[in-house]
Structure formats: structure tokens, C-alpha cells
Amino acid sequence: MVKLRLKRCGRKQRAIYRIVAIDVRSRREGRDLRKVGFYDPIKNQTYSNVPAILYFLEKGAQPTGTVHDISKKAEVFKELRVNVNQTN
């Protein structure tokens, strides 16, 4: 199973997180399938590759709680609903 979760990067006391699609069995810094964005909690900046996130969500990937909140703020789920309505 694939999850969308955070992968820690940066230096001590200055963490930056990548949003990655990764196998559930991999550890936090393990090998990811694809990088789909990043999150900087100190500057409160995010970047999301929305088409890549939508691709993994449509394939059945589950976001973690934090990634779900970040994606919700970026309005990714609104685009997911639009894509689902267009295919019906």
C-alpha cells in the first residue's frame, strides 16, 4: 500500500519536510516512489505538485493526517472532486 507522508530533510533544529509517495513498509527516510511537494513549518510555506498528488490519490494512496491537512489547505481535494465529476 502507498501512503502520502512527510519525509524529514534539513539540518538540526531547522527541519524541512518533503511530501512523498512511499510504500507503507518503508521507514521515514526510506526510498520514496515520488516527491510530490514540500512543507516548511518554520516559514509556513508549502508547495504541492497537485497533478502528482491527484494521481496517487486516484490510485488508492492514503495521506497521513498532516499531509491531509496540508492538501486540504491547498484545495487539492476540491480538484479531486472536480475530476471525479467529470469522469461520471
Automatic annotation (TrEMBL):
Q: What is its main location?
A: plastid
Query: From the UniProt record, which GO molecular function terms apply?
Result: structural constituent of ribosome
* Biological process (GO), any one: mitochondrial translation
Naming one, the record's GO cellular component terms include: chloroplast
Location of this chain's protein in the cell: Plastid, Chloroplast
Q: Which residues form the signal peptide?
A: none
Which residues, by range, are in coiled-coil regions?
none
Q: Which UniProt keywords apply?
A: Chloroplast, Plastid, Ribonucleoprotein, Ribosomal protein
The protein's matches in Pfam families, at most eight in alphabetical order, are given as:
Ribosomal_S16
Tell me the protein family, please: Belongs to the bacterial ribosomal protein bS16 family.
Q: What is this protein called?
A: Small ribosomal subunit protein bS16c
Classification from the root reads: Eukaryota, Viridiplantae, Streptophyta, Embryophyta, Tracheophyta
User: Its encoding gene is what?
Assistant: rps16
